[in-house]
Amino acid sequence: xxxxxxxxxxxxxxxxxxxxxxxxxxxxxxxxxxxxxxxxxxxxxxxxxxxxxxxxxxxxxxxxxxxxxxxxxxxxxxxxxxxxxxxxxxxxxxxxxxxxxxxxxxxxxxxxxxxxxxxxxxxxxxxxxxxxxxxxxxxxxxxxxxxxxxxxxxxxxxxxxxxxxxxxxxxxxxxxxxxxxxxxxxxxxxxxxxxxxxxxxxxxxxxxxxxxxxxxxxxxxxxxxxxxxxxxxxxxxxxxxxxxxxxxxxxxxxxxxxxxxxxxxxxxxxxxxxxxxxxxxxxxxxxxxxxxxxxxxxxxxxxxxxxxxxxxxxxxxxxxxxxxxxxxxxxxxxxxxxxxxxxxxxxxxxxxxxxxxxxxxxxxxxxxxxxxxxxxxxxxxxxxxxxxxxxxxxxxxxxxxxxxxxxxxxxxxxxxxxxxxxxxxxxxxxxxxxxxxxxxxxxxxxxxxxxxxxxxxxxxxxxxxxxxxxxxxxxxxxxxxxxxxxxxxxxxxxxxxxxxxxxxxxxxxxxxxxxxxxxxxxxxxxxxxxxxxxxxxxxxxxxxxxxxxxxxxxxxxxxxxxxxxxxxxxxxxxxxxxxxxx
Length: 582
Known about the structure:
Layout: E1 11-12, E2 18-19, H1 31-37, H2 56-61, H3 69-87, H4 90-93, H5 100-104, E3 108-113, H6 119-127, E4 145-150, E5 155-158, H7 159-162, H8 177-181, E6 184-189, E7 198-201, H9 219-229, E8 232-238, H10 246-254, E9 262-267, H11 274-289, E10 300-302, H12 316-331, H13 333-365, H14 372-381, H15 383-394, H16 404-411, H17 424-451, H18 491-500, E11 509-510, H19 511-518, H20 525-535, E12 542-543, H21 545-559, H22 575-581
Parallel strand pairs: 3-7, 3-8, 4-6, 8-9, 9-10
Antiparallel strand pairs: 1-2, 4-7, 5-6, 11-12
Helix pairs in contact: 3-13, 3-17, 9-10, 13-15, 13-17, 18-21, 20-21
């Protein structure tokens, strides 16, 4: 075009208008140049030179296949959720932005409780040894937050060095300053359970006069930070210390929204008798009911979670069952970590969405000139009504909105006139993520769970024993002995009872006569119907001696606490049928 003329480029403005660069002399482009601007060539075809400005390329990227769930979560967060969060100061109101380590880190377990409740002892019990820097005693010994992680060698990493390690999900803790970082460290060691889990040991929650001693950092805020990111929260109580102090109550209330992660442990239960344990359990539930404001009863694991000899083993069977439940839940965390991270991302996206709508509403209601402060105070006071109006107009759930009291405190420090209007395209991308990308990630989770391995806890394993069993795929403590029932019954054991029923000339007992004997077991009719279906091999409505023995065998099996098979095992077929089947 010559040295004195600049290339004219067309930009699409939000209002649908066009902006063109003029030449250096301020002249408008020529007629031919205007045709190029309109994307029309001399042959009359529309030129594709600005096709890259459209969203086609970005939409095409949405059809890429994610390598795994973590990659899909990370990409969706950075591309579709994070821009909305930054645009509306989401991190100022709620939590800092997520890092790459938040999506790729191992599942984390947070342990809470008063001092000497057995938190550090429980960690040593799980990993089978002391972690570096561990000290256990009846007095408050753990005065730090300790992240117990896997490593090839024993190592202790101080807090200030730990928060700059981007491979670990603790970089955001730097915002709490040196007062906390001096009380935070990471203990690395080589232990099989830590290959699948990271354990967070915490200082004992203060009670009584100790509450007057200031820690120097915001304990409840930091616990809340961990609670939002961990996969499980273990809250330990000593049978001799059931009181919930003010600091403990504030800590529990501060974890609101993470109630589904909380698992309560009534520890050192072997130190009391059965009647005492019943009263202690009732007292604990009474205390928790005043703090944990949920309609459901909290799950409480009763037992003694250490390697010491049981002082009172009359409740051993209960302890074994409770321990198997807890250890199974811990061992299965690596398989359910993807589900938890996806669930947390969905919650965060829904919260960011309603937050953007709230910011938009508040900005619209502000006057242009006079009375801004008065109007802002009025809007803050009527925040609950505003929630209802936005939920009705935008079609969002009222339960997605944040706590109004918290928001009123945060909004009081803001200037509503500085709020930004939501970007329509970004909000569409966020809706696209929730409607399209999230279901695609959900489809990947079953496959990823099959590939994931359970945490290698020595307390339970894939191979069941008479003392412990991994409660997955329908296995229970009784299922360890189930195979011993899958053998032919002892006919001689039931022959006398069969003859007393008066078999006919064909050697069979009618269903009516057999019923009088079978109902003596007091099993429900539905269970007896299933037993009859299994035992009546030839389906003639009557029982031979062998079939009667099968029925009684299955009754005894059910009374012993085992589940009945769905079909008669081949090893239990009558002798003639077994030979013919071969």
